Amino acid sequence: MKAFIHIKEISKHFGDFVAVDNVDLKIAQGELFSILGGSGCGKTTLLRMLAGFEIPTSGSIEIDGTDITHQAPYDRPVNMMFQSYAIFPHMSVSKNISYGLRKDRVAKKEIAKRVDEILELVQLTELKDRKPDQLSGGQRQRVALARALIKRPKVLLLDEPLAALDKKLRERTQFELVNIQEELGITFVVVTHDQEEAMTLSDRMAVMDSGQFQQIGTPKEIYEFPHNRFVADFIGTINIFDGIVTAVDDDRISVYSDEAGETLTALGKQLVDVGQQIDIAVRPEKIFIGKEKPDDANDVCIEGTVHDLGYLGNRSLYRIKLSSGKIVQVSSQNRRRSVTRFLDWEDKVWISWKPRSAVVLLDK
Predict the structure, then answer these.
(1) CATH value of 237-361 in 3.90.1150.10, 2.40.50.140, 3.40.50.1820, 3.40.190.10
(2) pLDDT at 219
(3) Dihedral Cα 60, 62, 66, 68, nearest 10 deg
(4) I need a surface site. Which of 25, 89, 189, 304 has the fewest CB within 10 A?
């Protein structure tokens, strides 16, 4: 991949604290890239170094082949949309959006043309004369986005761009943001702690912890094939069984787990040895649940008891207690309309999954 943004061995220290630890990253032109992580993982510090608000302790940053590591923020081909939006309350929508162009002394006709274009793009044309206090949260978010885009930066940095919106508006705005990015072709770098937001928005994403990237890939790669226990546990919900490798065939690994009380199998060609301690992980939606033991001898099958359950409309969640005391979470789609429960508390059940649904985790 040709790197449009190239972060090379970047570190940032605040005294003895290492916020970002020797990070390397390549982002392609026109890519929508998300950095996902919990509070204090270093993601915002990395974004601020891209923006020029923090200077790296070591390493370098290139954009479009130019080293910008020590450039001032106003000299970089970058704009930033802040989490708080930072919209001027005394200005109309149009004046908020055109502020950067007016400060750059762009000709009035050019400003008017570009404001009209960006208003149409973010669907705010009819609201151009309103003040921010007359707008909804989603409309204010689009004003901030339009103001960041109107100067046509090579890179747009977005710090928790949808955090201030309620759940339904956030879900709708995610798709609007993707459509705008695709239409403009500008490279977006998004920092977020919201997994669903990162999965929905991103062409690729990085999962960050303790100042380092744990995994970089497409949302599907990271969700379905996590590299280690941290990523598997951080992204979505997952059941993890500790075990010891008992057999290794060409494409199948057998692992005995005390927690499961069974030998678990998984497909893969990982370099593991008999006697090695590893983890087997399986997502709740990959698990089947029923009162009868499945007939397929190749399936992994474990008996348990319904410890807890929840009805969420489109799906039901079950917490199954195994004989070892371990709780396994199962997610089941509610495909039939019914007012009665398929399963109830304390029911004896079998849970099962295909070996190909399991993930082998070698690193903690």
Answers:
(1) 2.40.50.140
(2) 95
(3) -60
(4) 89
